[in-house]
Amino acid sequence: MRAATLTDDVGSGDGLDVALDARRRIAQTEAAQxxxxxxxxxxxxxxxxxxxxxxxxxxxxGGSGTPSVSEYAACxxxxxxxxxxxxxxxxxxxxxxxxxxxxQLFACLHEGSVDAWRIRKVARKTRRFTIAQAGDADRRLxxxxxxxxxxxxxxxxxxxxxxxxxxRIVEDPDDAENQRTENSARRSVSxxxxxxxxxxxxxxxxxxxxxxxxxxxxxVESLRFLGDNRPHGILRSVALGMLDEPDSLDDxxxxxxxxxxxxxxxxxxxxxxxxxxxxxxxxxxGGSPERARRARRSGSRHTVLYVHFDRCWGTWSLExxxxxxxxxxxxxxxxxxxxxxxxxxxxxxxxxxxxVAPPRLKEQLALMNAGTCTFPHxxxxxxxxxxxxxxxxxxxxxxxxxxGHRLCxxxxxxxxxxxxxxxxxxxxxxxxxxxxGRTYLVTGGTTTKLPGxxxxxxxxxxxxxxx
Length: 467
Ligand SMILES: [Zn+2]
Fold this sequence. Notes:
Residues 72-222 form the DUF222 domain. This is HNH endonuclease. The chain has 467 residues and is of the alpha+beta class. It folds into 4 domains: 6-185, no CATH class; 197-276 and 285-292, no CATH class; 302-335, no CATH class; 357-466, no CATH class. It has 18 helices and 17 strands. Strands 14-15-16-17 form a 4-stranded antiparallel sheet. A hairpin with a 2-residue loop joins strand 16 (439-443) and strand 17 (446-450). Helix 7 (131-142) packs antiparallel against helix 8 (157-171) and helix 8 packs across helix 9 (173-185). The two termini are 48 Å apart. The structure holds zinc ion. Zinc ion binds next to helix 17.
């Protein structure tokens, strides 16, 4: 149907041709991965993963028209492919959508004429489309030009989004309106640490977004006016951080106003500079506006820092951020109040007599696996996860450091309702076995797939037999 690659036509074999051919084969290999995944799901479709007991485990990962899959399929698929639960779930959903809703685009992937990330984006963006709308998107984006290249490989993703928007609006204007309402109800903003920076992702209303955009540019303009010549992107990032500190914005605007007036002394800007050098208990200005502003500024930030010392490397790190340098620590502490929390020694055994874990034990366990859920490849924060008895309390399991760990809600459900089992042969080490018999060692926030199976404890045998 299509001339799959340029190399077929040119055949000169220089480095770029070889690279292009490799890229085509990567796409084809991705398609083979999705086929194999769907084969696995089809083979296991008749086998419920959850134990009997009224747990409704069937759910639809993909869009309408795709078959339902066990809620816990992502638990088996994710770790087996080295993915988190959400990564496994997204992969299953995309593979189902490509097969059942976007077959022409999937054919392009099989031919190697489009990169996998592009059609996975389309799968995600059309997940809520009706079958007819998805079919239209499939047809339009897979349309080939004379050399056989599909449209999706010839335009940017912005243009792809326009086409998808057109399909949604033209085919069902009400649906487009409903979609906007639903999108509005799902607005959220997330901030998370990533490689020493904070990443932000989210959505705002159009009005809020426009106002925030203008506000950031306004602050950038002020910073530039005062001589800050860092790149525009960095200044917008700095500006966003300043929104959390009304007093520093106040200072900024005073400095700009003073500079615009062109006065060299006795300005607000100079006042700010001078009071920064004053001692804290300078007499005689107890009721001055400067003093009030200064007090507000010093109280504008309150930060709880979880600082850890790595005995092996002799370095300090901030929880959820990673290793920090001395200057970074100074920058953080320079404008923060500090809360010092008592150190919990991870090697100390903490125990309780009842079923409920005390806060100190929960805090200790939240730190045990580098701060994450102990399920293989899960990177959800343990601090907001559930406390779990490895051996059930009613079966004699104690409430202590050895028998406790922290699991995110999804994996707590998986451990409770499916044949997943966990053992902890030593503090800080967890051996997990999946219902299909795959074995993983989790420790220090890392997951290692182990060959073979581990011998089951009595509890694990009971769970597996009951499943
Ligand atoms: Zn988890």
